Amino acid sequence: MREDGLTKVQRAVKVLERLPRWLILGLAFPLLVLNGWVFLVVFHYFQSLITIFVTANLLAFVLNYPVNLLTSRGAKRNRAILFVGLLAVLLVLVLGLTLAPAVIGQFNELIARLPTWIESSSQQVQIFDRWAAGRKLPVNLTGLAIQLTERLAEQLQSLTGQVFNVIAITIGGVFNFVFILVMTFYLLLQGDRLWDGIFLWFPQPYGSLLRQLLRQNFHNYFIGQASLAAIMGTSMTIAFVLLQVPFALLFGLGVGFMALFPFGTGVSISAIGLLMALKSVWLGLKVLGVAVVIQQIIENGIAPRLLGGFTGLNPVWILIALLIGAQVAGILGLLLAVPLAGFLKGVASLMRSHLLEEHSLESLK
């Protein structure tokens, strides 16, 4: 019976091999769409749990580096995990008691001042329009300025809502916060065994290759991107303070946070320059010019050494990955989009090399 079953499978495989490739792809496409739809339904149903699990994994992934550093110097892993965990909690508490109130206060003040700045910018644009009309220049910026300012306010409120939504989901409750901490410590202790068990389901040696590929993409992206974001945020904050920019701490940290995402630095700098232009055109141009210079120095001098084009992805595919990640999982999806896209590219390359190898072996036979 078993041989008959194998024979039927082999016959089915041979029949599929004879079919045109376009027909095979046409038959597979509805299945892919159906599986994708089921995945989205399941993801949205368990989104809060998945967010907590992914957050704990990311924390464990980052904290694992100082833990490994301590263990390489002779410390026991349990003690190293306890020390690093306590240090991380202490750091979060210090930042929460010092930086967080200042940033939240500046953000609330920015929201309160924004209508005044918008009105001031409208007056500046009207003055410019009257000046242009007096010289019979075909320029009318009033309507465009109103649309841009309204759009900027909407995007700012939308982004703020997403950020606070992610924070509320992940650490909004005491239970979730404690659960993340417990899961992070568990992953530091037993994470390797957990992932070993998951990748054992894949045929070898592909399971080991997939795990190595996943680890490499996340390592290169998060370590490099986090270092770049820290440098960018610190540099921008210092520059904004020296320029006496209002809400310098909020804007500097905002640029650093947006630097975690591809193209985020340019978007945040443009938004800050536009916000400052609402208050004063000269201040907006000055902020934009200094910020662009700092961005170019960091991205052209430091970023290539940190990132080095690790994904090998075309910028178009990076944008598509970011759009899909934002649509599926919001801010968390933006964080995971690029390393996952790099991982999928590596998987596709691995499958392609495997198929080429099989084809070459068959041709030799």
TrEMBL record:
Mode of membrane association: Multi-pass membrane protein
Subcellular location per the Swiss-Prot or TrEMBL entry: Membrane
Annotated Pfam families: AI-2E_transport
Entry's Gene Ontology BP terms: transmembrane transport
GO CC list: membrane
Keyword Cell inner membrane among UniProt keywords: no
Record InterPro entries: AI-2E-like
Membrane-spanning parts: 21-43, 49-68, 80-104, 166-189, 221-243, 249-274, 281-298, 318-344
Keywords from the named record: Membrane, Transmembrane, Transmembrane helix
Chief location of this protein within or outside the cell: membrane
Family, per entry: Belongs to the autoinducer-2 exporter (AI-2E) (TC 2.A.86) family.
Protein name from the UniProt record: AI-2E family transporter
